[in-house]
Design a protein that fits this description.
Elements (H helix, E strand, L loop, with lengths): L2 H5 L2 E2 L9 H11 L7 E6 L7 E6 L2 E7 L12 H13 L7 E5 L9 E5 L16 H20 L16 H16 L5 H9 L11 E3 L8 E3 L6 E4 L6 E3 L1 H9 L17 H4 L4 H12 L8 H24 L7 H5 L2 H14 L3
Antiparallel strand pairs: 1-2, 2-3, 3-4, 4-6, 5-6, 7-10, 8-9
Helix pairs in contact: 4-9, 5-10, 6-12, 10-12
């Protein structure tokens, strides 16, 4: 199944995914500027973490993101943080959807949720960008890097986000967080994860800058204009905080060390023929836009990012076992934990482990 088949489009909500449209309509009337009903809800196929719905109404289309129902890991699924960071960035002109309201009253739909405007454009699920020409591919990739640089150059105070995270020791806190999350959802012992949990905290890189960090910045977490390379909105802010911008940059760079498989990886593609820039060009563009001379050796960062991904997917695997995963695609994803752990260990070895 391609990413388009797995993620594109909506389905009618079934069972626990159904929300009370009457209560939601009342809340929208009271909290969403310009809203007029009636409304109709469908659920987006994509999204492993926070279930996401399309709201079609007389006043236009909106998007609702809610916490999953059932027991949740601590600090996970923080829709209030997603809402806050996007609302703050929207005031600075950064490309995010307009935020309409956050609801922390479980009695409306059964969990916390927020509503934002629906941005009309295209999502690029496949990093090879089939059907596009080399000039367009190159422009889209450079736009992605330029938008990331804009995020990292954003004045945190001006965006009202100075209290959005703790200063300093970002990677130390992240390694600790994902170790704890992994332990809470652990289903088997993996030697690679045990070694990484031991090695990563002992080899943390120095943090020299602090910015808003998206936490999951990649080509398919953005909406692009249908007729140009312009990025209209960056999506999926669940993992955002204040931290080391190199976390985001190295995460984007992982596409160049990941096979395509119909997703965001570009390692095994004929990049020159396709017009996709090389990693060295991407590094140069990001450094020029953010005033850096260079970026450090990436192997530690790749090891960390693959470790973190393994932790995230392990959480999905546990939810599949518990029966609370929010997507039919979740089971297939849950089988990726061990390969991700092995990949993390490969880069750890390159970094001196």
């Amino acid at each position: 199944m391609s990413a388009e088949e797995a993620f594109v489009g909506t389905v009618e909500p079934e069972g626990a995914d159904r929300l009370d449209e009457g209560k939601l309509t009342e809340w929208m009337q009271a909290n969403v500027e310009g809203f007029t009903g009636p409304l109709h809800l469908t659920k987006f196929k994509g999204g492993q973490s926070n279930p996401t719905y399309k709201i079609e109404a007389a006043s236009g289309n909106y998007v609702l993101r809610r916490k999953p129902f059932g027991p949740l890991l601590p600090s996970a699924h923080a829709v209030d943080r997603e809402y806050k960071v996007q609302a703050g960035l929207h005031t600075t002109g950064f490309p995010v959807a307009r935020q309409y309201g956050l609801c922390t009253d479980d009695s409306v739909v059964g969990s916390w949720f927020y509503v934002m405007g629906m941005v009309d454009g295209r999502t690029i699920w496949n990093g090879a960008m089939p059907g596009c020409d080399p000039v367009e591919r190159r422009a889209v990739y450079f736009e992605m890097i330029d938008v990331l640089a804009r995020l990292h150059n954003t004045d945190v105070e001006a965006a009202g986000l100075s209290d959005f995270g703790k200063p300093g020791n970002y990677f130390g806190r992240q390694v600790d967080r994902w170790t704890k999350q992994y332990r809470l959802s652990e289903t088997e012992v993996m030697p690679e994860m045990e070694r990484l949990i031991e090695w990563l905290p002992l080899t943390l890189p120095e943090q020299t800058r602090t910015s808003v960090v998206h936490g999951d910045f990649r080509i398919d977490n953005a909406i692009f204009d249908r007729n140009s390379a312009k990025c209209l909105a960056v999506l999926d802010w669940e993992l955002s905080t204040l931290g080391d911008p190199l976390a985001d940059f190295s995460y984007v760079a992982m596409a160049w060390v990941t096979e395509n498989g119909g997703r965001s990886g570009v390692m095994d593609l004929d990049r020159k023929a396709l017009g996709i820039p090389e990693l060295e060009e991407v590094v140069q563009r990001y450094c020029a836009a953010t005033g850096r001379d260079s970026v450090p050796d990436m192997n530690w960062y790749f090891a960390y990012n693959f470790f973190r991904l393994a932790g995230i997917i392990q959480g999905i695997k546990k939810r599949v076992i518990d029966g609370t995963a929010s997507s039919a695609h979740a089971k297939e994803m849950s089988e990726r934990v061990k390969p991700l752990a092995e990949k993390a260990m490969e880069f750890a070895v390159k970094a001196g482990a």
